[in-house]
Design goal:
The chain is an alpha/beta fold. Helices cover about 15% and strands about 30% of the residues. It has four domains: about 160 residues, 3-Layer(aba) Sandwich (Molybdenum Cofactor Biosythetic Enzyme, Chain A); about 55 residues, Alpha-Beta Complex (Molybdopterin biosynthesis moea protein, domain 2); about 90 residues, Molybdopterin biosynthesis moea protein, domain 3 (Molybdopterin biosynthesis moeA protein, domain 3, Beta Complex), CATH 2.170.190.11; about 70 residues, Beta-clip (Beta Barrel). Bound molecules: adenosine monophosphate and magnesium ion.
């Protein structure tokens, strides 16, 4: 066994060991790009906006003709969106214009229609009820972005806010960092598939489905999910196949029991083990290893432990393998709603519920009957670190919480990544 690491040491070991991917970029359509990491700078092939345009319905004028209110100008043409005027604005002239239309040559301002009045007479004339400044109600071509400039730099995580810009600059196919492919292997002789009814000491294999969902939620791809009995040779064979993926997650068998084969099997495959225990409850028997570029985790079979370990250690590894730099779990401060018992010997990280109270976050332990109760995960939208110590952490205490991606509150409000 290796020295037991603290939670923070273990997270740091993961984030300093796992490297960004070396595989070449892949190309995806813009429609599929949200959530992906841009592999190269994207530059614009046009000025944004592409031409100087009006931001109002009104009259395009030469500001010099209308420096004080009351000027009367001849209306000589029209410029509508997609249908520019066919002439320039001369001295004493105005061109009727609409939002999004090209500013006519020699015009330098637009007065909105609400500030004008029509003047009766044979030819069309308009009176400007307000003084006009140069540049008023005009968006200059290229003022947002110049042709050739970088619109979105490499390394950006594409969000919904990028999509309009990318479409505006014609970036319909985007070079993105490939998603890491993750193999998931659940070990345990007691396990039956979730679509079977367990009998005589069997339980349903539930970690595979949970881990697959967590993997996808972290932006990675599931290569496969398999279940295997506690049989060293069969685990070794499947683990060997799993080591062909970018990341292998084993569930169960990571501890020191007679039927816990994960550590030995991985060592036999040449995996370098960086840690095999963490001073954490639940989640102590968590193993982290690498084989060249490939990453392996041995997670505890206990579903709560696997869930907690995934968030603390696996998710940062997946994010790094997806190309992100800043991968440590997001955390923020909240106030404890109820006292939580501490344990003298070990730091705990507990499933917890968040609620907003008058604009402030409050957090409570989601509660369980025993250490394997999965209903507390249903109720959790955060993890609550409880440092080791004597007595309870009192209600009202300011504490850290780690929001869960995909919890009841959704990802956008709370997750930085
Ligand atoms: P282990 O880590 O293999 O000692 O398993 C710890 C506990 O988690 C035992 O009660 C197992 O039956 C349970 N367990 C292990 N693997 C799974 C799984 N894939 N799905 C649900 N429970 C599991
Ligand atoms: Mg087991």
């Amino acid at each position: 066994m290796l020295p037991m690491l603290s939670i923070d040491q273990a997270i740091e070991r993961v984030t300093t060991t796992v490297r960004r991917p070396s595989a070449a970029a892949e190309e995806v359509p813009l429609a599929d790009a949200v959530g992906r990491l841009l592999a190269a700078d994207v530059r614009t092939d046009v000025d944004l906006p592409p031409f100087s345009r009006s931001t109002m319905d009104g009259f395009a004028v030469r500001a010099a003709d209308a420096a004080s209110p009351g000027a009367v100008l001849r209306v000589v043409d029209e410029s509508a969106a997609g249908r520019p005027a066919s002439r320039a604005v001369g001295e004493g002239e105005a061109i009727r214009i609409f939002t999004g239309a090209v500013l006519p040559a020699d015009a330098d301002a637009v007065l909105q229609v609400e500030r004008t009045a029509t003047v009766d007479g044979a030819d069309e004339r308009v009176r400007l009820e307000a003084a006009v400044r140069p540049g008023q109600n005009v968006a200059r071509g290229g003022e947002d972005l110049r042709r050739g400039e970088v619109a979105v730099p490499a390394g950006s995580r594409i969000g919904v806010g990028h999509v309009n810009l990318l479409a505006s600059i014609g970036a319909t196919r985007l070079p993105v960092v490939p998603r890491p492919r993750v193999a998931i292997l659940a070990t345990g002789t007691e396990l039956v598939p979730p679509d079977r009814v367990p009998t005589g000491g069997q339980i349903r294999e539930s970690n595979g489905a949970m881990l697959a969902a967590l993997v996808r939620r972290a932006g990675a791809a599931v290569a496969w999910v398999e279940t295997v009995a506690d049989d060293r040779d069969r685990i070794a064979a499947l683990a060997g196949r799993g080591l062909e993926a970018d990341v292998l997650l084993l569930s169960g068998g990571s501890s020191v029991g007679d039927y816990d084969f994960t550590p030995d099997v991985l060592a036999a495959h040449g995996v370098e083990t960086h840690f095999d225990r963490v001073a954490l409850k639940p989640g102590k028997p968590t193993l982290f290893g690498t084989l060249g570029e490939r990453v392996v985790f041995g997670l505890p079979g206990n579903p709560i432990s696997a869930f907690v370990s995934f968030h603390l250690f696996v998710r940062p590894a997946l994010l790094r393998r997806a190309g992100l730099d800043d991968v440590a779990p997001t955390r923020f401060r909240a106030r404890l709603d109820e006292a939580v018992p501490r344990i003298a010997a070990r730091d705990q990280v507990l499933p917890a519920r968040l609620r907003l109270d008058d604009g402030r976050w409050r957090v409570a332990f989601a509660g369980w009957h025993g250490s394997g109760d999965v209903t507390c995960l249903r109720d959790a939208d955060a993890l609550l670190p409880v440092p080791k110590g004597d007595g309870a952490l009192p209600a009202g205490e300011e504490t850290w919480v780690l929001p869960l991606d995909g919890g009841r509150l959704g990802s956008s409000a709370l997750s930085s990544s």
